[in-house]
Amino acid sequence: METTGKARRSDATKEAILAAARERFAGDGYERATIRAIAADAGIDPAMVMRYFGNKEKLFASAAEFDLQLPDLTAVPREELGRRVAGHVIDRWDGDETLMALLRAAVTHQAAADRMREIFAAQLGPAIHAIAPEDAAVRAGLIATQVLGLTLTRYVLRLPPVVAMDRETVVAWLGPTLQRYLTGSPDTH
């Protein structure tokens, strides 16, 4: 019984650290976020953060877990793929603090950029491979350029015209480009 109580407290402490880290990384970026500030936000001693995660880089990697929650693209009518992915980007990423932390940090920190690449390779690559196996890596890379460009300008840089667009306007603009990357060829206009 005592072990179970300790395990629950340990899990709760770990979750509190991760929640504080996500907020701190999102607000301050990787470079300015400190173990001491994250520990203070979680209401624990900084040594506990080190005990659970080892160092700032490992803490960031754990805090930056991000599931793209991509829909099963094989179940989407081929002519709707671009619009469906564009809508999913807005629905999934709107206001997600983990994404903001990862995106901000990826611009300036190598470990965060590596983490972003891992997430896209592990999640986007297989989804694209299911519908276009012959050149899935290229297609996934091109889709990432559009998705990351949109999310960076909309949620991090907060470029006013991009922020002002409602969901349907974003889908109308982004969908055809994603459709071309998903089903077209380099010579299609």
Describe the 3D structure.
By secondary structure, the protein is mainly alpha-helical. It has 2 domains: 2-63, Orthogonal Bundle (Arc Repressor Mutant, subunit A); 73-183, Tetracycline Repressor, domain 2. Helices cover 76% and strands 0% of the residues. The protein contains 10 helices and no strands. The protein has helices at residues 2-32, 35-42, 46-53, 56-63, 81-93, 97-108, 110-129, 136-156, 160-164, 167-183. Helix 1 packs across helix 4. The longest helix is centred in the first third of the chain and has 31 residues, at 2-32. The mean pLDDT is 88.
Gist of the model:
The protein is mostly helical and about 190 residues long. The chain contains ten helices and no strands.
Mean pLDDT: 88
**Largest sheet entry:** none
- Helix percentage range: over 70%
Number of helices: 10
Q: What's the assembly state of these chains?
A: single chain
Run of helices and strands: HHHHHHHHHH
How far the N terminus sits from the C terminus, by CA atoms, comes to: 66 Å
Q: What is the total domain count? A: 2
What's the total count of β strands?
A: 0
